[in-house]
């Protein structure tokens, strides 16, 4: 028990240490979570008032504790008494909770089995743009998630905080920040659910995302645009998409994000922005919605990964941190290297 508690405490400390901007990490306030394995906890069915009891090891011997919970959760534990992997004991708002962890087998398709590709482009004009393609690159479905209402809502929050700051109403200012965060989280939940629902309609589907790690450090625009970009929780939206997709046995892959809206779908030449969100090909003069083009090209970039790395056991397209080796470089130049890779599809 002591060793298990020590290991869990080290994990929590590393998690806190890797998030230097989060100075109020909840694990270090009040009761620290405890992990039990099958040596330290077991479950007992009963015909009495409480249908399920936990038999927990302590320093003073074992204690039996009656459990209550949602019917669905209780039924899962009762039906799989001996299948759990671990249990976390949590304490929140004066109540103890047991988080019981099971291993759930999922039949997620591999790269060679992918039949439908759901490309997702993140942006400001449209928070997310979804384009569904098959292996031949045929467009099957398109969905835009506009961001105008969200930006207006956030602008009002920003104006409200400015007025509260002038009046030195610090508690009300803090409450407005919390309300905005709850609003953004709710929006991300709804958008991610709709994206996963779109993917669930297609067989052997994979959701293709851009790897946007470090986007705040890499992109510097005007003060207004930076506020719009840097205050939107893209990472949270990506995390919601990933865990909801995996929960429905849908594969997720990440690709290198650069220049996804700057390559013409028709002739593979470079496109330029004429207005937001319009992009025009310099060669064939075809016009695109830049967000739609980006959602197309993240899929075509995955096509390039799959073709270039066919049979490579070390292939990990979900990493998406760098471009495929041998495609970019001084020989091609950055944008030309991308065109060369898309041409492989």
Can you walk through the features of this model?
The chain has 345 residues and is of the alpha+beta class. The protein has helices at residues 2-17, 71-79, 148-166, 170-200, 215-218, 223-230, 234-247, 290-308, 334-343, and strands at 34-36, 41-45, 52-58, 61-66, 84-92, 95-102, 116-122, 126-134, 139-146, 205-210, 251-255, 271-275, 278-281, 287-289. It has 2 domains: 2-102, no CATH class; 111-343, YqgF/RNase H-like domain (Nucleotidyltransferase, domain 5), CATH 3.30.420. It has 9 helices and 14 strands. The strands form 4 sheets. It has a 5-stranded mixed β-sheet with strand order 9-8-7-10-11, with helices on both faces. A 3-stranded antiparallel β-sheet has the order 1-5-6. β2 (41-45) and β3 form a beta hairpin. α4 crosses α7 and α8 crosses α9 (334-343). It is globular, with a radius of gyration of 25 Å.
Helix content: 25-40%
Q: Could you give the distance between the termini?
A: 54 Å
| Count of individual beta strands | 14
Strands ordered across the widest β-sheet: 9-8-7-10-11
Determine and state the CATH class of the largest domain. Answer: Alpha Beta
CATH architecture of the largest domain: 2-Layer Sandwich
What class would the helix/strand composition place it in?
Answer: alpha+beta
* Beta-strand proportion: 15-25%
How many helices does DSSP assign?
Answer: 9
Question: Tell me, what's the shape?
Answer: globular
Structural domains: how many: 2
Largest β-sheet summary: 5 strands, mixed
What name is given to the CATH topology of the largest domain?
Answer: Nucleotidyltransferase, domain 5
SSE string, helices as H and strands as E: HEEEEHEEEEEHHEHHHEEEEHH
What is the name of the CATH superfamily of the largest domain?
A: YqgF/RNase H-like domain
Provide mean pLDDT, rounded. Answer: 77
